[in-house]
Amino acid sequence: MLRLDERVGAKLFERGPAGLTQVFSDLGGMPVALPVLTCAIAYALWHRALRLAVYAALTMAAVPALVIPLKVATARQGPLTEAVNYYPSGHTATAAVAYGATALVLLALPRPAWLREASWPRAWMMPVAAILLTTATGIGLVLHGYHWPLDVLASWCLGPLVLAPLWWVSCRSRRRSSG
User: DSSP letter string over 96-110?
Assistant: First the structure.
């Protein structure tokens, strides 16, 4: 499986416009993803949803706590470098959790008045946006040659597992706010 991953990855590296793949890659960096989640947490605090805000912050804190030991344990060499500790992709995991947690927090809270009057179905827009941002991050990382495809795939699988407790809390918050 690793050989197939490396063959596929080698064919994909440095494909596509370098500027765009770099922007996509950067979506998973802490300087981009963390402020997005911070705004959602601040919005939850503004609505006095302390439990939701704490769970969102803890969910994000779980990313390095899980990813770093996995990177060290596997010590996988990255593409186009001799360096190791590339599996799983930290940027992809950061994107999945930050944007996923943002979607879950915002879905659990009441909509502002100006959005309540809007006619689009918000319930599916947030998760779709989170999935698109996470997918773009992974694609950018592979096309730019920062990660092997399996590095990204592993983080795509890890994201929903890390988000599960927050999903449970957000469902309870939604039920409470609608009741």
Answer: HHHHHHHHHHHHHSP
Residue ranges per structural domain of the chain: 16-178
149-153-155-159 Cα dihedral, nearest 10 degrees? 150
Name the token pair of 113: 């008045």
B/e letters for 52-78, b = 16+ CB within 10 Å, e = fewer, are bbebbbebbebbeebbeebbeeeebeb
Instruction: Give tens-digit pLDDT for 100-155.
Output: 999 999 988 887 776 666 655 567 777 888 999 999 999 999 999 999 999 999 99
Percent of the chain at pLDDT above 90? 74
Angle at alpha carbon of residue 33, lines to 23 and 81, rounded to 5°: 55
Alpha carbon distance 179, 154 (integer Å):
38
